[in-house]
Amino acid sequence: MVYSQDVIEDLRQGNDIVEVISGYIALRQSGANHMGLCPFHRERSPSFSVSAHRQLFHCFGCGEGGNVFTFIMKMENFSFVDAIKFLAERINYRLPQTASAPSVSSEEKERMHQAYAFAARFYYENLQAPPGQPAMSYLEHRRLIPAIQRKFGLGWAGSGSDLRDHLSSKGFADGFLVKAGLAMEGSRGHYDRFRGRLMFPIFDVQGKIVGFGGRIIGDGEPKYLNSPETPIFDKSRTLYNLNYARQTKKQTLILVEGYMDVIALYQAGIKNVVAALGTAFTANHARILKRYCNDAVLLFDTDEAGTKAALRAIPHLYSAGLGIKVCRIESAKDPDDYIQEFGVQALAEQLSNSYDFVDFQVQTANKGIDMSQTSQRITFTKASAKIISALNSPVEREAYARDMAHKYRMDEGALKEEIAVILGGDGSEDYIEAPRNSPIAVYDNKQGGQAFSEAVSHILSTMASDKDFCKQITKYLTGEEFADSILSEAFSKILLAQDKGKEVAPADIVTTFEYAEDQQKISRAFVKPPEYEDTKDKYIALTHQVTLVKSAHLARLMADATQNGDVEALARLSIERKNLETHKISFLAV
Ligand SMILES: [Zn+2]
Question: Are the C-beta atoms of residues 387 and 365 closer than 8 Å to each other?
Fold first, then answer.
C-alpha cells in the first residue's frame, strides 16, 4: 500500500462517515444509527444503515457494507488510492509524498497540473477562435457536436511558440515547460511541442489533465503526437476516458484504439469506453481496468495492426481476471467510421454479438489455413493447442478443446494430446491437471453455512473489543481455520493491534484491506456486535462458536483427505475431532 496506516486513520477520523454519506443520500437518525435509501440497490423503504459510533455502513437489503473508504470506492467507482486522494482533498489534508516518485516534490506536480490546466484552456479558446478553423472543420466533418468538444476539452495548438508565450506570461519558466512536456528547446530558443494539431487533453481518473494527445491537421508527421512521460503522466497506467467511463458504473468496459473512437462512441451514447494512449496495452492497464469492471470488450480496428494489438492485449486482460470478448466490425476500418456509416444501433448489435476471446484467437490462427493440407492442419492444431493451454482452469481447457475442435474440424484427441504435451503431461487421458492456483475456499459453504459465518463474525468482533479474549483465543484457534484468506488476515491484524496495546477500531481494520470486496467482507463480520447479559454468557457463547469453527475446519480437511484417499490423514483428523469433543475449550474472565 502506498500510504501508511497512520495517514489512512487520519483520513478516516477526519471524514465522518455520516457526513460523507449525507453528501450523497438523505439520512435520518433512527436509534443509534442513521437510516436511508440504499444507493447501491433499488428500494422503497430504507434498509441502508450508517453507524456513527462504529463508522461503518451496512445495507440490510443488498449486503453492501464497509467504512467511509469502501463507500467512496463503491459510490465513485474509485480504487483505494483514489478514495484516499478524494477524502484527503475533501478535508484539505496534505498527503505525504509516496515512494513512487521520490525525486519530484508534490508542489512541482501541482504546478504541472496548473500548467496543463492553463494550456488546455488556451487550446480550447484557440479552437473556438478563427485560427482554429482547420481543426474545427475536421471536427465538423466527423460530426462532433460542440457540447462533446467542450466535454472532452478539445483544442487547437497553433504555430511557433504561442503556448510558451502564453504560459511565460503566467510565470512558467522555459525549463519547467520543457520538463512538463509542453515546450521544446531549439537552437533559436524555446518553442511549442504541439503545433498545427487538434488537441485532446488526457485526464486522470480524478479528472485532472495529465497530458495531451495531438492529431495533425493537414500534412505532417507523426499523425498523432502524445505528451512525453512526466512526473504526472505515466502512459502505461493511464486510460483515456476512464474518468468518465467509470462513472457509468457499467461492469463491462469497451476498449478501443484511439481518441476519436472513444469520443465518437461517447457522443453516440456508448460511454463505457476507454483507450490506451498511443502505446501498447499493458499489464498495468489491465490491472487498473479490473478495478472498475469485470468484463472487457475489445473493439479494435479490423486491419492487421488492430488484430495484433487485440492479440497482445488478451493475455494481460486474462491474467488480470477479466472476462474478455472481441468485437469485429468487418465492414468499416474503425468504430468511428462504422457509426458514421451504419449508426450506433448497428454497433450496439455488433457489440452484443462479440466473439469469445478464445474463439477469436483460434479464428485468427485459422486465417489462410487449408485444412485439407496435412502440414497446415498440424500447424493450426498446434497453434490452437497453445492458445487453449494458456487457460488456467482444466474445465475451461476441456470445454474449449471440445468446442474449437468441433468448430474448426480438428481432431479432438490430437488437440487434447497436444495441449497435454504443452502442459507437461504425458499425453494420456489425465491431461486435465489440477489448477495451478487452487481457489481459496469460501467460508459460507455447506460446512455450517450461516452459523459458521456468524461464529466467525462474533469471534472477530469480540477480539476487537475484548483484550482478554484476544489474549486467550490464540491458544485454541488460528486464522487459517476460518478457511478464508481475508478473514484470516483480519484475525492476525486484530491480534497484532491488540498486542501493541492499541485500541482496535473495526473501521480501521477494514481500511487495511485495499479492495472493496475484501473491505465489505470484513465489515460484514463486524456488523452485528454480539450482545450478552454478562461476561460468563458471552464466553459460553464464544466457546460454542470457536468449537463450531474448528469442527467445520476439520470437516473440510477430512473431506479433502477422503477425496485424496489419504487414509493416514483421515485417521489423524478423526482423533483431532474426538479431542475437540472431549477437551472443552474455555475462556477465563480475567
Ligand atoms: Zn442496498
Answer: yes
